[in-house]
Design a protein that fits this description.
Blueprint: E1 19-20, H1 29-46, E2 52-57, E3 60-66, E4 71-77, E5 80-81
Antiparallel strand pairs: 1-5, 2-3, 3-4
């Protein structure tokens, strides 16, 4: 089944339409922890409930979501992503 969004763009199908970053430069755990700290501080000072912060480089991606009573942190290495232009 193919799903299209507003401008008739096809929703990407995993893994065919995704770019893999598994061979990207390995990011150290220390740097990832720095990213997490920076993201939480950014959301603490500038973010509203429902906001997100993300940073990526090499083979690593950090996404932090701010909720009413928690931060949800996702860290992944060797990730894949796709884009839909709107």
């Amino acid at each position: 089944m193919e799903i299209c969004i507003e401008k008739k763009e096809k929703v990407p199908v995993y893994p065919d339409d995704f770019s893999s970053f598994k061979d990207g430069v390995d990011i150290s755990n220390e740097e990832i922890n720095d990213w997490i700290e920076r993201g939480i501080l950014t959301l603490e000072w500038e973010g509203n409930i429902g906001d997100s912060y993300s940073i990526s480089s090499g083979n690593s991606l950090v996404v932090i979501h701010k909720y009413e009573d928690e931060y949800r942190i996702v860290v992944t290495k060797d990730y894949s992503n796709a884009e839909i232009f709107i």
